[in-house]
């Protein structure tokens, strides 16, 4: 993963407002092109242009208020009084404004994702509370609006930052700096050029946490007040053993469908250690996560797997082991055989095999929620897997064996497995399905699928997270089980062959 690519992807929209204003205006008007008579065609609002501000309820353009704006707050208020819907951008810079009360008093909808709002260098601006009631569209489930409030030396943003307004509190990339009081501090790209000491008062970080090439572990204590990180989390090329320096971190908030949680090339990292973390939010998608090239002993606990899964993480790369479980782990069993298995296991570690003659033992699995290992169901006469109704997570970290094998179950006509919410694997995410009842996938009209689908949005995340590569004759091409999937068996066969030859 190229670091700059990662940064650029996560903050690409910041470039929107840096190019020439006329170009930007043209771009905006091309996007919202349905009502040209409701376009504001000027890149500045002043006594010369205000008469061209459309009297429509729904206007598109860029409202620029700057040092050429020779209009009072009252005059601006009048110009905007009809406005209930505005698409494009708002730029307020070098003005003499003291507040933003000139916007229409009733909530107006600001379609801001193609430009955003920039408020900077306004020497007299003291109050921006209007931002609390502004309705940013899109605000949920879509791209974030760029919002930047900089260098307004008299502006105290604490009301805005502390408001429960969803519009402000859901933003992850908002920039506030150089004001009398800012909203949290700025991480992201800027973090790379600053010293960690600058963050010692920081409890909310916008723009994401970026620690690249940091090897001075002493300085990390400056991050110990951080309880809220908004924007992607990215730690690379460090010598950290774990993340315990984020000792108060409670919330992470992302807004992205691509990589947001990245731990890469941290060769001393053996543990995660984020015990206070209680929420990871991403209104757009699973929080895509990479744990890659860490210490060879890097491990996650059973509890960490459960919590990260509940917080809707999706692993794109998972170079991890399972930490040695503690003795008091709730109803933990190690798999030896179905005959030996206890009745009430909730978590099983090991390669679970339900084989010939185990049919009657299958009901022992009725309470199992998590399997750390693989699942093989082979040569049984089971008709269905209804005993797996509770099974919700499978984690397979040991080798590239298929995570699920369903082989030679001649009576199996309903192979639906549990209510699985995640399958996490370190290597391949393969299932082999072969030699079962010829109508095994009649229930899905022939589609090779063990979990079934349902139409809800949450289920889309689930469907993605438990998706398997299905192989085997019941799904397509026959797999030669001996040669491709069991190297030990191959060694054994070659040994027999060798002995045979010698004899
Ligand atoms: C803005 O410009 C377009 C195209 O030049 C024109 O059709 C439209 O009437 C103008 N809008 C206003 C409000 O003047
Ligand atoms: C407005 O501010 C800009 C940037 O500070 C400056 O270059 C320009 O001369 C100013 N214009 C007026 C009319 O004051
Ligand atoms: C802003 O205030 C300064 C002095 O206070 C004044 O010279 C200037 O004309 C004002 N600018 C505008 C656009 O009203
Ligand atoms: C407001 O503007 C957006 C984008 O131009 C448009 O999709 C929406 O229908 C408008 N809403 C109203 C009430 O005019
Ligand atoms: C990190 O270090 C590597 C190798 O020393 C260098 O190529 C890279 O540019 C550095 N990255 C940053 C963000 O400092
Ligand atoms: C976490 O790292 C710190 C040093 O940064 C170390 O003192 C501590 O023992 C580590 N904790 C675990 C569980 O590895
Ligand atoms: C990191 O690991 C290297 C090699 O394993 C070791 O020499 C070094 O002391 C470790 N650094 C820290 C801070 O633990
Ligand atoms: C599953 O199979 C058992 C017998 O093996 C049967 O009693 C039960 O009704 C079946 N359940 C479903 C949902 O088909
Ligand atoms: C499985 O199917 C075979 C024939 O297809 C039948 O003889 C046998 O009784 C079935 N087993 C069960 C448990 O239903
Ligand atoms: C793992 O997956 C890769 C790519 O799908 C495939 O080439 C490889 O043979 C698989 N390995 C095993 C052991 O299944
Ligand atoms: C397969 O499903 C069809 C309907 O989708 C049904 O008519 C048929 O009886 C089923 N066959 C078996 C063997 O269950
Ligand atoms: C299977 O196909 C039948 C008929 O085309 C349809 O009614 C049924 O909903 C389908 N079932 C599934 C699980 O796709």
How is the topology of this model organized?
Layout lengths: L2 H9 L9 H11 L26 E8 L7 H7 L5 E9 L15 E12 L9 H4 L1 E3 L9 E4 L7 H5 L3 H4 L5 E3 L7 E2 L1 H6 L10 E3 L2 E4 L15 E3 L2 E4 L14 E3 L7 E6 L12 E3 L5 E8 L4 E2 L1 H9 L2 E6 L2 E2 L9 E3 L12 E3 L2 E3 L15 E3 L2 E4 L14 E4 L7 E4 L14 E4 L4 E5 L22 H9 L3 E3 L9 H5 L1 H16 L1
The structure holds 2-acetamido-2-deoxy-beta-D-glucopyranose (12 copies).
The site of one 2-acetamido-2-deoxy-beta-D-glucopyranose has 6 residues, from loops.
Entry summary:
With 503 residues, the protein is α/β, with parallel strands linked by helices. It has helices at 3-11, 21-31, 73-79, 130-133, 158-162, 166-169, 188-193, 302-310, 457-465, 481-485, 487-502, and strands at residues 58-65, 85-93, 109-120, 135-137, 147-150, 175-177, 185-186, 204-206, 209-212, 228-230, 233-236, 251-253, 261-266, 279-281, 287-294, 299-300, 313-318, 321-322, 332-334, 347-349, 352-354, 370-372, 375-378, 393-396, 404-407, 422-425, 430-434, 469-471.
């Amino acid at each position: 993963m190229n670091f700059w690519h990662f940064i650029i992807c996560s903050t690409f929209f910041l470039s929107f407002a840096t190019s020439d204003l006329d170009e930007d205006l043209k771009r905006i008007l091309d996007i919202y092109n349905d009502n040209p008579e409701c376009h504001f065609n000027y890149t500045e609002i002043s006594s010369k242009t205000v008469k061209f501000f459309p009297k429509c309820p729904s206007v598109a353009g860029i409202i620029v208020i700057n040092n050429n704006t020779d209009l009072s707050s009252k005059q601006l208020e009048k110009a905007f009084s009809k406005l209930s819907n505005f698409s494009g951008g708002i730029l307020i810079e070098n003005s003499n404004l003291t507040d933003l009360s000139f916007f229409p008093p009733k909530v107006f909808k600001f379609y801001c994702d193609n430009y955003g709002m920039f408020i900077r260098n306004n020497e007299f601006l003291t109050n921006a509370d209007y931002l609390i009631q502004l309705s940013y569209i899109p605000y949920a489930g879509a791209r974030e609006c760029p919002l930047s409030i900089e260098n307004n030396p008299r502006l105290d943003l604490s009301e805005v930052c502390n408001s429960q307004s969803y519009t402000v509190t859901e933003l992850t990339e908002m920039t506030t700096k150089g004001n009398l009081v800012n909203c949290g501090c700025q991480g992201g790209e800027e973090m790379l050029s600053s010293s960690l000491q600058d963050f010692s008062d920081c409890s909310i970080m916008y723009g994401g946490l970026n620690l690249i090439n940091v090897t001075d572990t002493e300085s990390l204590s400056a991050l110990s007040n951080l309880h809220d990180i908004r924007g992607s989390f990215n730690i690379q090329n460090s010598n950290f053993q774990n993340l315990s320096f984020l000792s108060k971190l409670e919330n992470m908030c992302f807004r992205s469908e691509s990589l947001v949680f990245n731990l890469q090339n941290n060769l001393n990292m053996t543990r995660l250690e984020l015990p206070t973390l209680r929420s990871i939010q991403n209104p757009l998608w699973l929080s895509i996560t990479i744990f890659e090239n860490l210490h060879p002993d890097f491990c996650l606990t059973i509890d960490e797997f459960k919590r990260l899964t509940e917080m809707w993480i999706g692993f794109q790369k998972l170079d991890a082991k399972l930490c040695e479980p503690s003795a008091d782990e709730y109803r933990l069993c190690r798999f030896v055989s179905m005959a030996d298995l206890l009745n009430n296991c909730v978590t099983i570690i090991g390669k679970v095999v339900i084989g010939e003659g185990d049919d009657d033992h299958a009901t022992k699995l009725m309470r199992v929620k998590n399997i750390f290992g693989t699942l093989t169901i082979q040569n049984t006469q089971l008709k269905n897997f209804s005993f797996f109704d509770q099974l919700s997570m499978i984690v397979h970290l040991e080798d590239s064996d298929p995570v699920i094998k369903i082989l030679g179950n001649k009576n199996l006509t309903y192979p639906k497995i549990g209510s699985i919410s995640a399958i996490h694997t370190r290597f391949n995410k393969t299932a082999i399905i072969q030699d079962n009842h010829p109508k095994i996938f009649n229930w899905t009209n022939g589609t090779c699928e063990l979990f079934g689908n349902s139409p809800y949005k949450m289920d889309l995340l689930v469907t993605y997270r438990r998706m398997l590569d299905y192989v085997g004759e019941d799904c397509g091409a026959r797999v030669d089980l001996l040669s491709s999937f069991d190297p030990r068996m191959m060694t054994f066969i070659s040994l027999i062959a060798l002995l045979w030859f010698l004899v």
